[in-house]
Specification:
It is built from 3 helices and 18 strands. With 192 residues, it is α/β, with parallel strands linked by helices. β8 and β9 form a beta hairpin. 24% of the residues are buried.
Length: 192
């Protein structure tokens, strides 16, 4: 009888263990086959261009150097007590009509909103500013002092020069462009 009780207990225990311990079978759903397209990698950009946004004379001087950036944007009026030189050739990150990297250098004496509307204009004052960078421009502000142009493609865009503009050659003078919003209070002449 002991054996019957022992076997009954064992059978009952196994039944309980089997019932409580079993897990439901995992359902494996068949996923529809998806097609993955491989795209060619995006073209790499050789140069990343950035702006120097400055509010101090030292930062402005560094930004206009040959090791600076293509655009120098001021956040306020600046007065610098020494001669300045804008030099170096810079790409602005755009392409010209022939698909080549566009060369440009800009002194931006203004701030603008997200729609590119000028919100404030500033004045840069220095005894002399020499333009050596090709495709250079002063835009939407005032420069107080004399400008010496050594390139054949300097521009004023919506800007004012309170001083003289001297050109290093007839070619530099002939290549100078100024829009109808710009003005120069002094002389414009070739001075070698």
């Amino acid at each position: 009888m002991k054996i019957k009780v022992l076997l009954s207990t064992l059978a009952l225990s196994l039944t309980l263990l089997a019932g409580c311990g079993s897990r439901p079978a995992e359902q494996t759903a068949t996923k529809p086959e998806t097609k993955t397209e491989t795209k060619a990698p995006a073209e790499k950009v050789d140069t990343v261009t950035t702006a120097s946004i400055v509010d101090k004379a030292e930062a402005f001087e560094k930004a206009i150097s040959k090791d600076g950036t293509w655009i120098i944007a001021t956040l306020n009026d600046l007065t610098i007590d020494k001669d300045l030189v804008l030099e170096g050739e810079f790409k602005n990150g755009k392409k010209d009509k022939d698909g080549k990297d566009a060369i440009q250098r800009k002194i931006a004496l203004y701030t603008q909103d997200d729609k590119h509307v000028v919100t404030a204009r500033f004045t840069l004052t220095a005894p002399k500013l020499t333009i050596k960078s090709p495709q250079a421009r002063i835009q939407s502000g005032t420069f107080k002092g004399d400008v010496y142009v050594e390139t054949k493609d300097f521009q004023l865009v919506d800007a004012k020069i309170e001083g003289n503009v001297y050109f290093a050659s007839e070619e530099a003078k002939a290549g100078f462009k100024m829009d109808e919003k710009s003005s120069i209070t002094g002389k414009q002449e070739v001075k070698k």
